[in-house]
Specification:
134 residues; alpha+beta; Nuclear Transport Factor 2, Chain: A; 3-stranded antiparallel sheet; 22% helix
Length: 134
């Protein structure tokens, strides 16, 4: 038998978890120190965009970006779908509210730069990344 309880769900408060995390040095491939606030959100964006979705069992199916499916596609298709793909990957995290001012530029036969503004709970952050489109 399940006990009956009167629980008032209208006054629940949602708390955002702190963003304090370990510092990742992507260039030297090292972990050291701690980051918080805007720097932690920038690191989060980089980590999501560097992790292919469904490729690693350690991550949930919501984590990462699906860029491999764009490899070998026509340039026009990539341009039309890249913004949606990146938004879908980043908006999973509740600290990121929106992605705006998305711009793309082809930098080589198989690469392009994507730049955008990340609207987070801590403010606006400019971000730029290179995408390989073999």
């Amino acid at each position: 038998m399940i006990p009956e309880q009167d629980i008032d769900l209208t006054n629940l408060e949602v708390e955002t978890q702190p963003s304090l995390t370990y510092r990742l040095d992507f260039e030297r491939k090292r972990i050291g120190g701690m980051v918080d606030n805007e720097e932690a959100i920038m690191q989060l964006v980089m980590k999501i965009l560097y992790t292919e979705r469904y490729a690693y069992v350690i991550y949930s199916s919501d984590y990462g970006v699906e860029l491999e499916r764009l490899i070998g596609q026509e340039y026009d298709y990539i341009v039309s779908d890249l913004e949606r793909t990146i938004k879908e990957a980043l908006l999973v995290d509740d600290r990121i509210l929106d992605i705006e001012e998305f711009e793309m530029e082809q930098t080589g036969l198989d690469t392009m730069n994507a730049s955008f503004k990340v609207i987070s709970i801590l403010g606006e952050l400019d971000f730029e990344t290179e995408v390989i489109i073999l």
